[in-house]
Amino acid sequence: MPQFPIEKRSKVSRNPNRASYDRETIYNIVDEALYCHVGFIEGESPYVIPTLHTRITSNIILHGAKDSRLMKCLQLGKEVCIAITILDGLVLARSACYHSVNYRSVVLFGRGVAINEKGEKLEALKALTEHIVRGRWKDIRKPSQQELDATAVVSIPIEAASAKIRTGPPIDALEDLDLPIWAGVIPLKLQAFEPEADPQLGAGIPVPDYVSSMRK
Amino acid sequence: MPQFPIEKRSKVSRNPNRASYDRETIYNIVDEALYCHVGFIEGESPYVIPTLHTRITSNIILHGAKDSRLMKCLQLGKEVCIAITILDGLVLARSACYHSVNYRSVVLFGRGVAINEKGEKLEALKALTEHIVRGRWKDIRKPSQQELDATAVVSIPIEAASAKIRTGPPIDALEDLDLPIWAGVIPLKLQAFEPEADPQLGAGIPVPDYVSSMRK
User: Fold this and answer.
1) A129-A130-A132 Cα angle (round to 5)
2) Chain A contacts of B202, Cβ < 8 Å?
3) Alpha-carbon gap, residue A49 to B103, rounded angstroms
4) Nearest CA distance, B103 vs chain A (angstrom)
5) In the predicted model, is pLDDT for residue A186 greater than 90?
6) CA-CA to A78 of 20 to 30 Å: which in A141, A209, B77, B204?
7) Whole-number CA gyration radius for chain B
8) What residues pair up with B142 in beta bridges, in sequence order?
9) B31-50: pLDDT as tens digits
């Protein structure tokens, strides 16, 4: 896969050694993250809204109520910036200014295109559901026509994107290495815990494998 | 504490029952989250950048390299929107459209003011460090004058802010409650794992209590 074009808006200028424009690298981060932050402009103000996402080929898929601020902006095709961030660890150096975090992040740019065709809309909602819990779609009641009509679904073809990744131990200045200060990384991970059944759940309905297997 | 003013830009219109403008509610979310996403406008494009933050009274504190895109914008005092999101769980309903997530999020607006006075700048950097690892500041080498000069630190007085919170089990339509489909919540939490010492760490330097206690 060819890498994304390096545009002024997507070029990483700070720590360019941590940057990547490689599609596979970017898609892996997009696919692992459960949610994203969408930035857009309304009037003369910037807005940032968290929302769930998924990816179909080179398009980001978002959904929401038709009359929400975010979905209105997306349906109008205005430029948006989407940031996706996975925090992997806290990096404790010997000196204050070399403290950091390990992370994998993506910043991408594009414009929304409304998905109105029923089959395509269902495919997009399926992808959104499966992105959060793989295996779920086959089990659930599918959207009714009325539910489909109330939901806006947009596709955002990625125009430009960059990833930024930091891994590994702290990087202290040479003259600080002998200081008697603990240094290292505290790994972080978003963990799933014991599922909590809906209090209204009927008797004898087992926890599906795709739910119980999320707890590692 | 009086609540934040409800302005057009900060008013939650979707699911207003999940909204709060209460300062304590908002500060608790800001203080628990390790990082935020900052939205700003450059040229005619929206940008969103993830970064570490802390809070001092009613101000958000950010820092970074002086010549980064984000810090340049903040030092110019342009309006920014900061989103802070904590994902607490996946909410699996019986029907596709009632799937959701449990979360606590804040969206706030303000403008940066550069912190240039040395004592104030050190206090802000201390707060940023302690926000990530409480107890760390006393142990580490403090910033040199040269390091201070290379780092921009800005305070963003919060002008308007709202929180949005979802908790609890799925809310299915009444007619779906009898479907033989598992429904419930998968709790999620960002967990700390076994600390990894810097390979260059000198012998006999113990892991500090504030590091080992992060693993629960």
Assistant:
1) 70
2) 178, 180
3) 13
4) 10
5) yes
6) B77
7) 21
8) none
9) 999 999 999 999 999 999 99
Tell if the CB–CB gap between A50 and B140 is shorter than 8 Å. no
How many angstroms from the chain centroid is the CA of residue A24?
15
- On whether the A16-212 domain is CATH 2.30.110.10, my answer is yes
Among A12-26, A152-166, B168-182, which is the least confidently predicted range?
A12-26
pLDDT tens for residues B150-201? 999 999 999 999 999 999 999 999 999 999 999 999 999 999 999 999 999 9
How far apart are alpha carbons A83 and A38 in whole angstroms? 7
Residues 6+ apart with CB under 8 A from B92: A133, A136, A211, B99, B170, B182, B183, B184, B185, B186
pTM assigned to the model: 0.96
Task: Please give the residue of chain A at the shortest CA–CA distance from B145.
Answer: A97
Mutation target to probe the A interface, by most A beta carbons within 10 A, among B44, B63, B97 is B97
Cβ-nearest to A97 among B101, B103, B147:
B147
User: What confidence score (pLDDT) does residue A216 get?
Assistant: 65
Contacts of B151 in chain A (CB under 8 A): 97
Chain A residues inside the 8 Å CB shell of B92: 133, 136, 211
Per-residue confidence (pLDDT) for residue B13, from 0 to 100? 86
**Reported confidence tier of residue A13, pLDDT bands at 50, 70, 90:** confident
Tell me the per-residue pLDDT of A40-72, one tens digit each, with 9 for 90 and over.
Answer: 999 999 999 999 999 999 999 999 999 899 999
The pLDDT value recorded for residue B216 is: 65
Distance CA A200, CA B182 (A): 10
State chain B's mean pLDDT as an integer: 96
- Cβ contact B47–A39 (<8 Å): yes
Q: Return the closest-CA partner of residue B172 out of B103, B89, B95, B100.
A: B95
Q: Which two tokens stand for residue A176?
A: 């600080």
Q: Is B214 exposed, middle or buried (0-12, 13-18, 19+ CB in 10 A)?
A: middle
Please name the amino acid found at residue A182: W
Contact A37 B82 (CB under 8 A): no
What is the CATH number that goes with domain B16-191? 2.30.110.10
What is the mean pLDDT of the segment spanning A114-132? 97
Q: Is A132 helix (H, G, I), strand (E, B) or coil?
A: helix
